[in-house]
User: Fold this.
Amino acid sequence: MERSLVERAKLFIPLALFVLLSVFLYQGLSKDPNELPSALVGKPVPAFALPALDNAEKIITEQSYKGRAHLINVWATWCPSCKVEHPYLLKLAEMGIPIVGLNYKDESRAALAVLDATGNPYVDNIFDKEGRLGLDLGVYGAPETFIVDASGVVRYRLAGVIDEEKWASEMAPIFFAE
Assistant:
């Protein structure tokens, strides 16, 4: 008995699905996570009210830094890339760039000990123990940095380490344009 053309075509369906799935998988894996778009770019920083890392009585909100451009840097003691980035954040702070830390899903004592040992580049540090603000910001992991303009609108997002090249080529032009 000879198979019909339709029956033969059905034999190729698994192969076609495999090829299609492979293409989608390849596209997803080939993307640089630093270039993943942020749904917040062009929108205000989400509303929040969280304690400062070094003073639980001090509440920081999205309104706290309106009126001047600043960076929000998501970091944690459990993040190895944050340790790599830290010396450059200190340089940016020395240059007068206001950086607000967002200590993400961390322990306050450990975070304060790291800042005492390595220096503190932050004008303030938001303590986001539960990660709710990070979730609202669309954080994939640490480190991530957002440029926020004087009106409180997110203008840029970087997932990954800030270094001199990233700052000079991508971030500084946006920061100083604000």
Notes: DSSP finds six helices and seven strands in the chain. The longest strand covers residues 55-61.
